[in-house]
């Protein structure tokens, strides 16, 4: 399936080469829609929501396929999805704010907060950069240990801090700090009043359903279970809400620019740059710096957020199968391995 997808991507890129620079933005978006949906079908993704932010504003958005196949509910830009590892990009905001306020030194060892951390001498900065022994190793499980760090520098539980400091502040009304908040009896429900819980439940009632896609591209409902939230994963959000978050980052609403510059610069602990900054991946593409993060939830969900700061351009993609990122090995640090991303870069960068 992946081989077929790569062939399609190459064919499409050849097609793009014939598009003249003066053809106009409308034609570019028309081509983007056509070929992204073609790739969606080639990979068997049931439903996708996509959005492009340019200069701080939504320039294009679209939904393809279905968020619920059985009931023929179409995917849309405001469809909620569990976004997995993209949660890390919100976690770095909360940890960065603690650092800006002088309540956290990210060069302190993890053992200060997590007594049983497997490599206690490693610093918060190293864990934020997915570095072990100073070398890159993408490990969301280790990143999740930062939840204790985040809670130690803020009086609120991490989940409540995400909700109040980011979701409510930015008006991200289609986002929920943990899918388990829709499960009666969950202890975390006590953190929120009845009005907010009612809103969260309404969002969770329309979350895109998770699907497993077999080799024949047949989709069937998977057994993905509702999860809580930590610094590594767990947020439910929409493409439109993530666009609000993206614009707030670029406008330095959530963090100072100097803090963002550190997060968006390649970390270096051994003399060789890592493919990560802090909570984000960082790489170069044809002279442009790419800032990105991805999510891969096997047989359930996938997502990519890709920023091109030099053009103030962002792509957000959410899907209700793992097809956006499966087989691309994005955990190795090269976002251009994704055929979906290749099409975006070829058209707009």
Task: Describe the protein in words.
By secondary structure, this protein is an alpha+beta fold. It has a single domain, classed as 3-Layer(aba) Sandwich (Beta-lactamase), CATH 3.40.710. It is 34% helix and 19% strand. It contains 11 helices and 13 strands. A 7-stranded antiparallel beta sheet has the order 3-2-1-13-12-11-10. A two-stranded antiparallel ribbon has the order 4-9. Strand 5 and strand 6 (135-136) form a beta hairpin. Helix 1 (2-16) runs antiparallel to helix 2, helix 1 runs parallel beside helix 11 (339-348) and helix 2 packs antiparallel against helix 11. It is globular and about 50 Å long. Residues 1-5 and 13-22 have low confidence and may be disordered.
List strands and helices in order, with pairings:
Elements: H1 2-16, H2 25-43, E1 47-54, E2 57-68, E3 73-74, E4 81-82, H3 88-100, H4 124-128, E5 131-132, E6 135-136, H5 140-144, H6 146-152, H7 158-170, H8 194-204, E7 211-213, E8 219-221, E9 236-237, H9 239-250, H10 257-263, E10 281-285, E11 288-297, E12 301-308, E13 313-319, H11 339-348
Antiparallel strand pairs: 1-2, 1-13, 2-3, 4-9, 5-6, 7-8, 10-11, 11-12, 12-13
Helix pairs in contact: 1-2, 1-11, 2-11
Name the descriptors.
11 helices; Beta-lactamase; alpha+beta; 7-stranded antiparallel sheet; globular; 349 residues; two-stranded antiparallel sheet; disordered N terminus; 13 strands
């Amino acid at each position: 399936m992946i081989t077929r997808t790569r062939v399609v991507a190459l064919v499409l890129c050849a097609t793009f080469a014939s598009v003249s620079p003066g053809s106009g933005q409308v034609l570019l978006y028309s081509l983007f829609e056509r070929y992204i949906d073609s790739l969606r079908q080639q990979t068997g993704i049931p439903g996708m929501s996509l959005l492009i932010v340019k200069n701080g504003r939504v320039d294009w958005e679209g939904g393809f396929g279905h968020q619920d196949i059985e009931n023929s509910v179409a995917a849309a830009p405001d469809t909620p999805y569990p976004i997995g590892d993209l949660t890390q990009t919100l976690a770095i905001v909360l940890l960065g704010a603690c650092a800006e306020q002088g309540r956290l030194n990210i060069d302190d060892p993890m053992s200060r907060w997590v007594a049983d951390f497997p490599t206690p001498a490693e610093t918060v900065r190293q864990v934020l950069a997915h570095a072990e022994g100073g070398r890159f190793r993408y490990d969301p499980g280790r990143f999740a240990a930062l939840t204790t760090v985040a809670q130690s520098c803020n009086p609120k539980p991490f989940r409540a801090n995400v909700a109040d400091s980011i979701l409510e502040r930015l008006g991200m009304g289609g986002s929920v700090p943990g899918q388990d908040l829709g499960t009666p009896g969950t202890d975390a429900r006590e953190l929120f009043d009845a009005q907010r819980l009612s809103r969260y439940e309404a969002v969770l009632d329309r979350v895109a359903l998770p699907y497993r896609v077999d080799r024949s591209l047949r989709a069937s409902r998977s057994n993905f279970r509702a999860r809580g939230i930590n610094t590594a994963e767990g947020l439910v959000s929409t493409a439109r809400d993530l666009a609000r978050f993206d614009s707030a980052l670029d406008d330095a609403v959530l963090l100072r620019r100097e803090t963002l510059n550190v997060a968006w610069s390649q970390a270096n602990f051994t003399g060789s740059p890592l493919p990560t900054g802090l909570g984000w991946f960082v790489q170069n593409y044809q002279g442009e710096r790419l800032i990105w993060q991805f999510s891969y939830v096997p047989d359930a969900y996938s997502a990519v957020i890709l920023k091109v700061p030099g053009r103030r351009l962002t792509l957000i993609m959410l899907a209700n199968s793992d097809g956006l990122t499966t087989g691309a090995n994005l955990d190795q640090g090269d976002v251009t391995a994704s055929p979906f991303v290749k099409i975006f870069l070829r058209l707009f960068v």
